[in-house]
Write a structure and sequence with these properties.
The chain has 184 residues and is α+β, with helices and mostly antiparallel strands. Helix content is 22%, strand content 40%. Strands 4-10-9-6-7 form a five-stranded mixed sheet, with no helix packed on it. It starts with a helix and ends with a strand.
């Protein structure tokens, strides 16, 4: 061997040795520290990103559509419906969660059957349960997708509407008589 080759041989030998050791380290891994990927995937539910495109309270659903939108309901009416339209969540489960005074009073699960899905849940209200009611759409992981509220109030005395009685309270002595067409 010539002199230049002899001086390069130890450096070349060292590089080959380092690569061999690094490759061997990559090919050996303790089985206890990294569980198989298939087991991890089976344990974690896969959620498809989707959204609630409509969520509202209504007095009735006809032909899978709400007949109106309710934000205030008087206690002479005891039935209300929570209507939702969901996009992009086929095959997943959503829950309609109803709450009153911070307590969950109803949870109804719905299986989403297609990429555009409408679901609704009806609730009969106790006329004494006055105040703010809340309904939420919750995904299977417990995430809240949508929240809506309505006010359940005592039916006003005959001859006034909920809007009118609220107007009267806000303006003190001023009274408005819509049924007679007069203002004072």
């Amino acid at each position: 061997m010539n002199t230049s080759m002899k001086s390069k041989f130890p450096a070349l030998f060292f590089c080959v040795l380092c690569l061999s050791v690094a490759n061997a380290a990559d090919n050996t891994r303790p089985e206890d520290t990294n569980p198989p990927v298939a087991e991890e995937a089976a344990a974690t539910p896969v959620l498809i990103a989707g959204q609630v495109t409509r969520a509202l309270f209504t007095r009735k659903v006809k032909d899978l559509e709400p007949v109106d939108t309710v934000s205030v309901l008087t206690n002479d009416i005891t039935r209300i419906t929570y209507f939702t339209e969901i996009h992009g969540m086929a095959g997943q489960t959503i829950t309609h969660r109803w709450e009153f005074n911070g307590k969950i009073v109803l949870e109804k699960k719905h299986e989403v059957g297609s990429s555009r899905w409408r679901a609704y849940t009806s609730k009969t209200l106790d006329p004494a349960s006055l105040g703010e009611w809340k309904a939420s759409v919750v995904d299977s992981a417990g995430g809240t997708l949508s929240v809506n509220t309505f006010t359940y109030m005592k039916k006003p005395d005959s001859g006034t509407t909920p809007d009118q009685s609220r107007h009267d309270c806000q303006n003190g002595a001023r009274q408005e008589y819509r049924d007679q067409g007069k203002q004072y």
